[in-house]
Amino acid sequence: MLQGSCLCGEIRFRVHGAPQGVSMCHCGQCRKQSGGIWSSAFVPEEDLEIEGDVNWFEASVTAKRGSCRRCGSYLFWTAHDEDTISFALGAVDGPTGLSLEKHIFVKDKGDYYALRDGVEQRD
């Protein structure tokens, strides 16, 4: 079981299922909110246990993003029409045991870095 928290510890989470879709997102929203590339994996909503008061931000008409009200850590992303939730791999305590599967929204990536790791890239 993976577990993690925000920077200040106000929000804690536990992943009870097997994470899927390990990716690094290069979209403009993730870059602005995280200050860089956002790495995540997802599980069905019922497999993610969250403790603390998450600040949910309606980032678009299709999805919302969850962060800590106190320290601002960006922790979660979920589409309105799906029953899964993504969690920040950078917020996981200790090793994840996961491997990167894909880079997403690479057409929106910053011009200040290159992707040369050989991992699948999706526009």
Give an overview of the whole structure.
The protein has 123 residues and is mostly beta strands. It has one domain: Metal Binding Protein, Guanine Nucleotide Exchange Factor, Chain A, CATH 2.170.150. The chain is 6% helix and 41% strand. It has one helix at residues 28-34, and strands at 2-5, 12-15, 20-25, 38-44, 48-51, 54-57, 63-68, 74-79, 84-88, 102-104, 120-121. The strands form two sheets. An eight-stranded mixed sheet has the order 6-7-8-9-4-3-10-11. It has a three-stranded antiparallel sheet with strand order 1-2-5, with no helix packed on it. It is globular. The relative contact order is 0.26. Pfam families: GFA. One of its GO terms (molecular function) is carbon-sulfur lyase activity. Keywords: Lyase, Metal-binding, Zinc.
Helix content: under 10%
Secondary-structure arrangement, i.e. CATH architecture: Beta Complex
CATH class: Mainly Beta
> How far is the first residue's CA from the last residue's CA?
31 Å
Number of helices: 1
Q: How many distinct beta strands?
A: 11
Are there runs of 5+ residues with pLDDT below 50, and where?
none
What amount of the residues lies in strands? 35-45%
Structural class: mainly beta
Shape: globular
What strand line-up does the widest sheet have? 6-7-8-9-4-3-10-11
Task: Give a brief description.
Helix content is 6%, strand content 41%. By secondary structure, it is mainly beta.
